[in-house]
Amino acid sequence: MKNKLPRVWLSRPQRSRRERFATYACLLAIFLLCEVGFEQRQVQFQVKVQAQILHATLERQSLYPQAAAAMWRKERWLALQRALLTKKSSPLAGRVIATAQEASPIHAAAPKQIQKETVGEIASASSASSQEQVPLKIIISSPPETPVSSPSSFSSSSSSSSTSTFPAFGHAAYPVSRVPNWGAMHSAAEWDRSYGEMAREDFVSVPRYDLAVLTTSLQELMANRDANIPAVTAKLFYSTRYYGAYNLDATEYSGQHPGVDLKLARGTPVGAIGGGRVQTVTRDSNMGLYVMIEHRLPEGTFFSIYGHLDEAWVKGGEDIAAGKAIGIVGMTGATTAPHLHLQVDRDDGVRPHIRYWPASSGAVDRTVAQRSTVNPLTFIGQYQ
Q1: What is the pLDDT averaged over residues 328-334?
Q2: Which of 166, 303, 361, 380 is most exposed, with minimal Cβ within 10 Å?
Q3: Which residue from 207, 169, 174, 133 is spatially nearest to 376, judged by alpha carbons?
Q4: What is the mean pLDDT of residues 9-28?
Q5: Whether pTM exceeds 0.85
Q6: How many degrees, rounded to 5, is the angle at CA 47 between CA 41 and CA 48?
Q7: CATH number of 119-382
Q8: Which residues contact residue 92 at a Cβ distance below 8 angstroms, ignoring those fewer than 6 apart?
């Protein structure tokens, strides 16, 4: 045939069996290397997350004599790291905690109650009218093996429930017992650390909410930074004031923010400000993952809201005591840095209660603001 091409043009290059085997072996080696690398990165990520959660848990278990507290925390954290390195794939947090406790030189002094629940002595921060730290004993349960990170279904108390069955409010407590000493940190490498990566000396007591200090110009404070470290820490910690504008120098009622933003390290455990019942655990585009707790007091019903969490350790309908850990600080929702949005709403009679947020922009009228919400720091100080 005239148009028939030579056979050699149509045929595929012939390869020897050895060449084909070498090609397949190279492809298989590349595939296995990619698979092993992916598994290693996955294990490293899981170990890092477990380390942060378990370190936060162990930090709260301070039941031991004050003289040995520093050594105990150091030893159990080192033991925890050793346990994670030797048991990377262990899914049970309790097993790792037990390993860390057994490795401690003063494990024999630990009380037996630690097997059921943990009672921590955490100093609650001072109220707006007092500079002294008031010690408060609170109950903090260990987080569940699988923390709640997805929205839970709404569950609230029935209107027919009697007041006697609803959990008591107790004494109000700050959501955290200590804060990073932001004013003493000088680089991004320092202030970008998570809660588990910070050392004990990186923290200070919760600063006082003093508007005279918080509205002092940051530029003025930084002019003599070493002398103003406590003031800088307070200013950064209370980064957005009650109904304040998104400006570090702004005062209250200068914006539309119906709560207080607390700058904290990512992974910091957050406690309930009072006893009550979890109304809902959900998320939205603005507040991210948040927990809403109903509190009943003689003056009325209030709802505390904890926003931008990375994880929630409670579920809707759960009864909790003041200070119980409900989750950890994160960066979910509309946020540019890890912080806790703390808000207290007044009861409007609607069930389920809807988180209040102003519809208008600009400065808000004080009367209108106080009709729907309460300054959470004033609320804590009043019922402490």
Answers
A1: 95
A2: 361
A3: 174
A4: 70
A5: no
A6: 90
A7: 2.70.70.10
A8: 145
